[in-house]
Amino acid sequence: MIRLDITGRSPIYEQLCREICGEIARGLLVENDRLPAARVLAKDLGINPNTVAKAYGMLERDGIIYSVAGIGCFVSKEKAGAYRWLTEDFRRKTREAFGAGVPKDALLSILEEECSGEVSPQTQGVKNDD
Amino acid sequence: MIRLDITGRSPIYEQLCREICGEIARGLLVENDRLPAARVLAKDLGINPNTVAKAYGMLERDGIIYSVAGIGCFVSKEKAGAYRWLTEDFRRKTREAFGAGVPKDALLSILEEECSGEVSPQTQGVKNDD
Amino acid sequence: MIRLDITGRSPIYEQLCREICGEIARGLLVENDRLPAARVLAKDLGINPNTVAKAYGMLERDGIIYSVAGIGCFVSKEKAGAYRWLTEDFRRKTREAFGAGVPKDALLSILEEECSGEVSPQTQGVKNDD
Amino acid sequence: MIRLDITGRSPIYEQLCREICGEIARGLLVENDRLPAARVLAKDLGINPNTVAKAYGMLERDGIIYSVAGIGCFVSKEKAGAYRWLTEDFRRKTREAFGAGVPKDALLSILEEECSGEVSPQTQGVKNDD
DNA sequence: GTGGTCTAGACCACG
DNA sequence: GTGGTCTAGACCACG
After folding, report:
1. What are residue B23's phi and psi, to 5 degrees?
2. pLDDT tens digits, one per residue of A4-28
3. Strands A65-68, A72-75: parallel, antiparallel or unpaired by DSSP?
4. Domain that includes residue B76, residue range
5. Quick one: D72 and D26 in the same domain?
């Protein structure tokens, strides 16, 4: 269940990384689960195989997945990397906004607004346990 | 006192917008204050005049500043725009991370980390009053 | 002065990384030196610009170079990354051979054989000072 | 006692060759010893029979083992080939690193690091006697 | 002009 | 079939 915003600011390979990391963070993908073959996923999503390959390559270099020659790509043991992927932009934007002069309280209230909605049930119990 | 990081991540014109909005948010620039001439600022910062022009243009389009032909650019009355500029990326990244499966608690702890440091004294008293 | 072995075992982008790291290690490229534009280098070497882009991208992600939007790529301050790039294969092969049962003495004598020749004069004084 | 690392870097057939050469170098396999049948070994290791066949084929081509049609594969008299197999990558990487500008001292210290650990007792007494 | 991204399509090693 | 690499060529944002 990967959704891409083709019309978009962030590059496709980056969205792809985020989506996959999200599935790992939510526990929908667990250690040693196999990712869809790059070409299959590319076809499903209507994008170029190279773009998927780029995303997979980045995730591998960050230790979030590992690839086995001629077999496929699999989810790594450590979830820390996936977690970092999902939060690094948030962290940077937090720093930028705070650094520019936005008071902490204001950021907190925005965070409250944005995090009041429901999330998918599978997310329950997800912790930063790595 | 505008600081730019030429090295990567966000484009210079964007950093410039953020810096100016920051000065407005912190009250260092107030209504009807005149901004430095684009060419002068460009020279001071060692960047391309077109880059400054682009930043000014975006800020004007968003109602954060207004320009008077042949005279210069000035800070608008409403601070809401500047405030929105500084927080919209934070808001989007908050939504993205939360939506991807990062629990609220994790975001809060990152926010605490990033906002524990001191900010410039001028920031005191800044509120989301628009 | 970059030499590639097109007929080769190791991928071009990897050879390119090694060559550039070598120039940094030998002091031929120093902090803030500008690398040739990806397209120019590609043309000079008779390879595809994407291949150069891939090499530059990897070097950037490893902090060995940094890119400035629309300007070019430059050598980073830290030489440690370049140094690591040049030695990581050697380290892995050392571990593999030793682990497989080759005695340390045998490896030492091979190392002596291979390192007896002259190296380029510029190399003198190069140290692992990072 | 052959150990394979399915995860990435070197291909399985190559690891297999290294493992077998290692056993020969350490004296665990001696002249005319019979290697396990390809299919049996493949089953034991949980890998594709073709992979074992490829490894055996390469070792035979290098004179490290010899095959008797319909009977099996056996260890050759000369250990030189096995020894060369285990060290040729190390030699090449030594040459590459030194050639690229890494000083001999740096390689020596890496070698010291990697060869400080204990090796299997059987290794004692192995020499470059071919 | 410069790097960054993407597409389309090809070939290869590995298994 | 699978990932890895490479080519050729295009478009874009940035400056």
Report:
1. -65, -35
2. 988 878 999 999 999 999 999 999 9
3. antiparallel
4. 12-80
5. yes
Nucleotide nearest to C68 (CA to C1'): E3
Residues C66 and C102 in one domain: no
Q: Quick check: is B47 in a domain?
A: yes
Contact B97, A91 (CB under 8 A): no
**pLDDT, greater one: A2 or D66:** D66
Instruction: Say whether both A24 and A67 belong to one domain.
Output: yes
Counted residue by residue, chain A has a size of 130
Q: Which H or E element spans position C107? A: helix C104-114
Cite the DSSP H helix spans in chain D. 12-25, 38-45, 49-61, 80-100, 104-114
**CATH number of the domain to which C50 belongs:** 1.10.10.10
Side-chain-side CA neighbours of residue B69 (13 Å): 0
Rounded to the nearest angstrom, the minimum Cα separation between A23 and chain B is 8
**Contact criterion met (CB < 8 Å) for A69 and D7:** no
Spatial distance between the Cα atoms of A35 and B75, rounded to a whole number of angstroms: 52
Residue A75: closest C-alpha in chain D? D7
Contact predicate D55/D13, CB 8 Å: yes
Q: What is the mean pLDDT of residues C19-24?
A: 96
- Between CA C88 and CA C21 the distance in angstroms is 12
pLDDT tens digits, one per residue of C51-82: 999 999 999 999 999 999 789 999 999 899 99
Closest nucleotide (C1' vs CA) to A48 is E7
In 3D space, the residue among C65, C68, C84, C87 whose CA is nearest the CA of residue C76 turns out to be C65
- Tell me which residue has tokens 């060869």: D115
Residue A107 resides in a domain = yes
Assess whether C67 (CB) lies less than 7 A from strand E: yes
Q: Which residues contact D50 (CB under 8 A, 6 or more apart)?
A: none
The verdict on residue A123 lying in a domain is no
Kindly provide the b/e burial profile for residues B50-84, where b requires at least 16 CB atoms within 10 angstroms of the residue's own CB.
ebbebbbbbbeebebbeeeeeeebbbbeebebbbe
The whole-number pLDDT of residue B118 equals 67
User: Contact partners of C by the rule of 3+ C-beta pairs under 8 A?
Assistant: B, D
Q: What amino acid is encoded at A71 in this protein?
A: I
SS3 D84: helix
pTM of the prediction? 0.87
